[in-house]
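Tutorial sheet, problem 5. The two components below are modelled jointly, 569 residues in total.
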Amino acid sequence: MTIALETRRLRKSFGALTVADGIDFSLEGGARHALIGPNGAGKTTLVNLLTGALAPSSGQIYLEGEDVTSLAQAKRVRRGIGRTFQINSLFRSLTVLDNVALAVAERTGAARKLFRPAFSHDEVKDEAHALLGSLGLSDDASRAVRDLAYGKQRLVEIAIALGMRPRVLLLDEPAAGVPSAESHRILEVLAALPPEIAILIIEHDMDLVFRFARRITVLAAGAILMEGSPQEVAHDARVRQVYLGERAHV
Amino acid sequence: MYSAPARLRPLEALPWLLAIAVYFAAPSYLPLGAYVFIMILFTLSLDLVVGYGGIVTLGHSAYFGFGAYTAGILAVRLNGDPLLGLAAAALAAGLLGLATGAVILRTRALTLLMLTLAITSIVLEIASSATALTNGSDGLHSVPVDPVLGRFAFDLFGTTAYFYCLAVVLACWTLVRSLVNSPFGAALVGSRENDARMHAIGAPVYARRLQAYSISCALAGMAGALLTQTTQFAGLSTLGFELSGEGLVMLVLGGVGRLYGAFVGPTVYIVARDYLARQTPEYWYMGIGVLLVLIVLFARGGILGLVDVLVNRLRAKRS
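Model answer (structure tokens):
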């Protein structure tokens, strides 16, 4: 199996505080990989390092074998690293369609066009509509994002990320804040994502993690505590001690 | 944006029809009308950066004044052709915008605001010191301006100036309208709404903002050139911070980020100022102040925002 994304001795510190401590991590092509750990373990920091939102203090990041450590965030995105945010980061006053179309237009290069009206770029709109359709959001396309229920806003987060056609998708707590009755919808969407996309999901909802992930990495205090199959992780004494506790049920 | 067509609506003909009506109905107001057009162009340039780009600036007069002096110096020293002066002013102000924007647009919020102020102060200081070129605090007097297209000489009644300014505003409005409705404009609004997300979808946010800023500066420079050409004078007041502030006030008055706020704001502001100055020559500024306080308190979206609210209420009542 090819390696989609890899880090070597990745380290990030803010002064005396080390939030990522020599992380060697790899994500295989088409992976369904989860990153779990207690609050403050450095999960979102790792995502920020991988996407380029944060610069590492040392270490390297490779995207399909190519060193992307020094590339800016936008360039990494264009090479195929997409992400969603833990807290919704949407264009709230714009419509759902506009939210997704902005991402599609960036990928296709339509966003550079200065004169032809955005409305007449059918190729962008068609793709955005198709994406919304696949996530069950067609009926909401012309509504402003801020008028949507929170669970649907989480789906728009995913739709925007997919609009970039990523090869690697980093999902930062896609079900955070979603009522448990609706989280199955998020899981359905995740399960239906194209198999060729390598997915790394950060999530506290263990039910979702154990249903979705085929491999799990446990992070604690900025370092990898262990990595393995869901069964291995669920039965690991250290993981139970630092994170899962009585919640482990697999 | 992508959700709504950008077709021309009949209402959009209104400003231009009004402009023609003013020519017939109030011929003695043509010089004031030309000044309104100049301020509309300046406010339109501000709306592109402030309203659509989310770049709050108090330094746009730097580009207005730079354009005014470029057109003035070119006419005094080389050639008085107005269209050439206009093009030179656009180019010069656009390049100044590119050079200064490349530095200041790396910052955000209050830092950015202070840097825009600094730029206008620096340009003002340079213009004030370079007396050989600018004539210092006396300004450039009696700037020669050739007839437009070699045919339409600037006359005492201000007819040529009026239609010349109107034509330039029409051309620039067409440009800005298509810009803000294009995918580029959509991306610009995207970075105003959520900068972090634009980065995360791979958008070159800084480059886009710089591009919009430079275009806006070129437009502000053209407005400055129009002022020089219609008054045959370029002075240091075109570079002052007051003009930047006044432009922002006009934009807020009309409505920010709605394209037509730049038409309504300057018109109301200048007409009100003209009227109040006649009624109470000593206290006219107070009237402007009261108007602005009322707008900010009761109509956050400016006059056009207020119109929106009223129209929506009427529609709600009917249904």
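Marking note: The first helix of chain B runs from residue 14 to 25. Full credit if you identified this.
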